[in-house]
Records
---
Amino acid sequence: MNELARPPAASLTQEEAFARIRLLRSPNIGPVSYAMLLARFGTAVAALDALPDLGKRGGRQYRAAPADRIEREVDAVRRAGAKYLFHDQPDFPALLAEVDGAPPILTYRGDLSLASAPCVALVGARNASAAAVKLAREFGKGLAEAGFTVVSGLARGIDGAAHEGAFPRTIGVIASGIDIAYPPQHEALQERIASEGLLIAEQPPGTEPRGSHFPSRNRIIAGLASGTLVVEAAVKSGSLITARLAGEAGREVMAIPGSPLEARSHGCNHLIREGAVLVQSPEDVVELLTGFDGTPRSTFREPVSQFDFEPGEMAEAQPADIAALLTTAPVAIDELIRQSGESAAAVQLALLELEIAGRLERHAAGRVSLA
Amino acid sequence: MNELARPPAASLTQEEAFARIRLLRSPNIGPVSYAMLLARFGTAVAALDALPDLGKRGGRQYRAAPADRIEREVDAVRRAGAKYLFHDQPDFPALLAEVDGAPPILTYRGDLSLASAPCVALVGARNASAAAVKLAREFGKGLAEAGFTVVSGLARGIDGAAHEGAFPRTIGVIASGIDIAYPPQHEALQERIASEGLLIAEQPPGTEPRGSHFPSRNRIIAGLASGTLVVEAAVKSGSLITARLAGEAGREVMAIPGSPLEARSHGCNHLIREGAVLVQSPEDVVELLTGFDGTPRSTFREPVSQFDFEPGEMAEAQPADIAALLTTAPVAIDELIRQSGESAAAVQLALLELEIAGRLERHAAGRVSLA
């Protein structure tokens, strides 16, 4: 086993840190089942040992990711000059840790203390208007000067301008691995953020960004910040997903308004109409977020669509309540999915929860019953 | 006595109609004291008879306006092709009648049935941007096509464009007398509104518009409509007074957003930030106002500043609660004003209320006591 790139907290042995990475990278394990297994078995080492027995007789297969692949990952993280951060380490961003389905393991480069300062997320369209790009830069600058760390996603347009305005008080969260520059136009900006600010990645090194990674990346952006400001965005856009995630997490959702004659403003106007706080200046944001106590003034609560996430991707469904549907007579999992009206992922997660509690028995042909 | 230009309702004699006009035009009488006197004495004829005795021994002077001046007014209204409308006549707009301090007598030209349809007020800046003028015309057109009557103030910029878009379903409320065209650039528009739509004036004929008349005119605009939409306005503007009056009256307050980089949008953005509903299209307005039941979705409730009105002008203060300060020992009215912290107008109105209830005694040198 390689040494981990960053010495884990005193209570976290090298072996346990390695096991945690390996557990999270195992098939069919996401943040929710990871947390469930850690809670049930105490350590990732013990959870990995138990993994093959879970779901053994039919149902979902659980097997640990190959150890040599994890060794290569740890090595790649070190070569990228990056470090690991685990959810229960003191430096793990407190607000992010509160978010449902937040990634329990991150990789990062740069100044981690930036994530301990009050954070505000600035996001928006890639094809933003010149006026909005100017606003993003001004808001980035004004908020950094007011002591906030500006979080964004390193995309072209609004994201890039927000980072540039805020230097060096800025965090870039990327959808790729920590060692992959994306988009290509922002390679230099990403390197500058890593050296002067803070660069964060959830995916393992070597991961090229995929469409399905962006909602999970957006969850981290929204989760780090006490408020998310959408600078300019059309109605169907990733920025609105970030705003929904911020609202779902109980954070402030803010938007800069624009004329109805400008389609690129319609997303922001929609957010405001649905309860996001209208802001016109960095001072408006500072006033709103200073002393944020977990009770947002924003009333924006638009549900995050299931379709925003790919099943089995980093953002896992929450376990469904299906114990009531079970008896000691075996029943097909497909039947449980039909009867509960829940997604397959949510039902599988609920079965895993029952299984590690010793209440589930698995039978042939994908059938289950109460133990 | 001249005939009134319009035959009053069956229950309203020519003599009583004349007396009502005369009572309202009398010095120190505004809508609130007018209503108080009418309630106390049953008819304006009786109230006029009682007027000289009120406040006789010191305090405010109440004397009827000269009858010959009222005769000339009634004649001028007829020559302008206009008619009178009294607050208790069936055609008096129902929503306007509900507003505190609404004018109990109006003059009008045109199609009074337009005021019985659902009304929406469209207001905004005189020096509006070309884009906002275009929006005002489009909203006027779209709302008229949806069956709404569009109410505005005939000012240059937004008002004029709203009227033009809505023809013939539009009401112009002017701050001058019914026979005075203002602003001069809109003389033809005003004439067209009078002949195809509906033109309403609160001030007596011959009255040139004064700054102090505009807030009262704005109260009528807001009062006629179930909702007021501000299309474009700076922070300090008459349009925001109209919005405050609409909010105070429990009506919908709506605004079209704009970029923070455009100072002419800041008033609208401020309204939205404080609870006005953001609208982007005529359909948004139709959706909001259709079936308006008196419970607005807008939460905008910014107080109407006393400074928006000139003391003694058409918008009277509400009577203060000063009976508790009085005993049977005479006290100076100035002292009551000091002790109550109320405006002089509010205290005088409260004293009038006590006096017509027979509870007040007036003494020399402006002193009063309980009777």
---
Amino acid sequence: MIEPAQTPPPPYYAVIFTSTRTPGDNGYGDMAEQVLELARQQPGFLGFESARQEIGISVSYWASLEAIQAWKENAFHRQAQARARDWYAGFRVRVCKVEREYGF
Amino acid sequence: MIEPAQTPPPPYYAVIFTSTRTPGDNGYGDMAEQVLELARQQPGFLGFESARQEIGISVSYWASLEAIQAWKENAFHRQAQARARDWYAGFRVRVCKVEREYGF
């Protein structure tokens, strides 16, 4: 179940992952589930949001750039990254500093 | 048609809009289309991405904080903002500085 992330007051960091999929599953569903489960256990992980229609947008929230870097270098995550072209026709990763937040 | 945004080299800004909808359309579809069309015409607008499943995630990209502020204060946009509770059970707006970008 994906719900809006409950994040602390800014500043913190967001990684916006925008993608288009290749045809077929090719093990994507299992991988995505495992990667997310592992991400949730990382130091500095703050939350995760995701939706897909024509394109997929996943946003993970992190306490620091160091936490993002450590997650990027995680061994299991690197194995998944190495298979990116099996699952994605294209993707962009944008690493962002969240400066302001509001809403209800 | 929503496609991955083609943005310039960082730094630039992103506004991550995460929402859950109220039941029914209540004029939402028409409003969303008009607001997006207008956003595309604003100075400093760089791109837009959106997807909705359990939650909706829309990301707009901007050249500067000033461009974001001017868009927030746009008269038609303010009319839409005033009706937020008709359309959204909840939303968060996160204003972010994009520091790094990569992908294929």
